[in-house]
TrEMBL record:
Reactions accelerated catalytically: XTP + H2O = XDP + phosphate + H(+); ITP + H2O = IDP + phosphate + H(+)
Ranges that cross the membrane: none
Record lineage: Bacteria, Bacillati, Bacillota, Bacilli, Bacillales
Protein's name according to its UniProt entry: inosine/xanthosine triphosphatase
Keyword terms of this UniProt record: Hydrolase, Magnesium, Manganese, Metal-binding, Nucleotide metabolism, Nucleotide-binding
Superkingdom of origin: Bacteria
The protein's Enzyme Commission number: 3.6.1.73
Listed PANTHER family: NON-CANONICAL PURINE NTP PHOSPHATASE_PRRC1 DOMAIN-CONTAINING PROTEIN, PTHR34699
A Pfam family the protein falls into: NTPase_I-T
Cofactor(s) annotated in UniProt: Mg(2+); Mn(2+)
InterPro entries xref list: ITPase-like_fam (IPR029001), NTPase/PRRC1 (IPR026533), YjjX_NTPase (IPR050299)
Gene Ontology MF terms: ITPase activity; metal ion binding; nucleotide binding
GO biological process, one term: nucleotide metabolic process
Length: 182
């Protein structure tokens, strides 16, 4: 069975856990490397386009370490009918240069979170103040706080990783097919 070499373009534990959980569930032989890459967008993306681009840039930059696949995951916010929403995007680049993208959960943000975001603060620290906890971005995330723990950030990213890997496996572009019983 060929071992798939995957890179996740972040050192955020919620993102690393999402990828390793999905690869483990798929019973793939894999090696997962974590590599911090520049997203090439602002620290707090403020539109669907910017959030998606952050994920794509991360994946593209992470592929430079000669992996079979590189995955970028990015959280952001965007405005819908006057309400700021959390949004999440993922991108997967295969070693042959094919790009796969997918969006994940979106959920409205309360005004007390949206106001400081509009004033230029980052969501991570705002969430820590809001929930009176520390390092929320690294585990349950805003989505975990806003769903009473029913969907934590790593679970939310797992869904995106499945959407990415599923498209990649279907494409025939995939060492993943050889590495798994598909
Ligand atoms: O180290 P990286 O990979 O950059 O991880 P990050 O937590 O900064 O995550 P993103 O860059 O993808 O997210 C962009 C911003 O939105 C924040 N953010 C996004 N989703 C969040 C969530 O569910 N909970 C807390 N903060 C979140 C995050 O803290 C950043 O300020
Ligand atoms: Mg970040």
């Amino acid at each position: 069975m060929k071992k798939i070499h995957a890179v996740i373009a972040s050192s955020n534990p919620a993102k690393i856990k999402a990828v390793s959980t999905v690869l483990t569930e798929l019973e793939m032989a894999f090696e997962l490397q974590s590599l911090e890459t520049d997203s090439g967008v602002s620290a707090q993306p403020f539109s669907l386009e910017e959030t998606r681009l952050g994920a794509v840039n991360r994946a593209q930059r992470a592929l430079r370490c000669e992996a079979d696949i590189a995955i970028g995951l990015e959280g952001g916010v965007y405005e819908l009918e006057g309400v700021l929403h959390l949004c999440n995007w993922g991108a997967l680049y295969s070693e042959s240069g094919e790009l796969y993208t997918a969006a994940g959960a979106q959920i409205p943000l309360p005004k007390s979170i949206a106001d400081p975001l509009r004033a230029g603060e980052e969501l991570g620290p705002i969430m820590d103040v809001y929930a009176q906890e520390s390092g929320i971005r690294h585990h349950k995330g805003a989505v975990g706080i806003l769903t009473a723990g029913l969907v934590n950030r790593d679970e939310m990213f797992q869904h995106i990783v499945k959407l990415l890997l599923g498209q990649y496996m279907l494409s025939g572009d995939s060492v993943a097919c050889a590495s798994k019983h598909l």
